[in-house]
Automatic annotation (TrEMBL):
Its EC number is 5.2.1.8. GO terms for molecular function: peptidyl-prolyl cis-trans isomerase activity. Residues 1-162 form the PPIase cyclophilin-type domain. InterPro entries: Cyclophilin-like_dom_sf, Cyclophilin-type_PPIase, Cyclophilin-type_PPIase_CS, Cyclophilin-type_PPIase_dom, E_coli_cyclophilin_A-like. This is Peptidyl-prolyl cis-trans isomerase. It catalyses: [protein]-peptidylproline (omega=180) = [protein]-peptidylproline (omega=0). Its main location: cytoplasm.
Amino acid sequence: MITFKTNLGDIKIELDFDKAPITAKNFQQYAQDGFYNGTIFHRVIKGFMAQGGGFEPGMAEKDSREPIQNEASNGLSNKRGTLAMARTQDPHSASAQFFINLVDNDFLDFKNESVQGWGYCVFGEVTEGMDVVDKMTLVDTGRMGFHDDVPKDEIIIQETIVE
């Protein structure tokens, strides 16, 4: 169990080490190392997802470890309340950034091993605190530099607790 203590409240997360062992272990290691402490949810799109884990206040990007293998073919679906790894167009580029699905986003699920079909690996779910995640969608967002949908009032992960 991992708890993110944010300035909006606590979010408790359970990881799925059975279906996404590489991804869950990677996320847990970042959490244990304190990597997420002081990071922000830098992209929030109402009716879609809230993304965090890669930027500090002011949109300063953090250096992450090497990318991991995409485990999106694990049978888990991008349903409301699940956590999935964020990545670039390269299916195997996920490192530290993640997102929480605000609704069922089945179109993000694995379809096949093509660039368009790989999908986004679900590796955990919010077990408590979806009300906190939903509060994120009430914050006004805008453009900051090259980034859209950035909360104008920063949503900060103040502390990460790994149990």
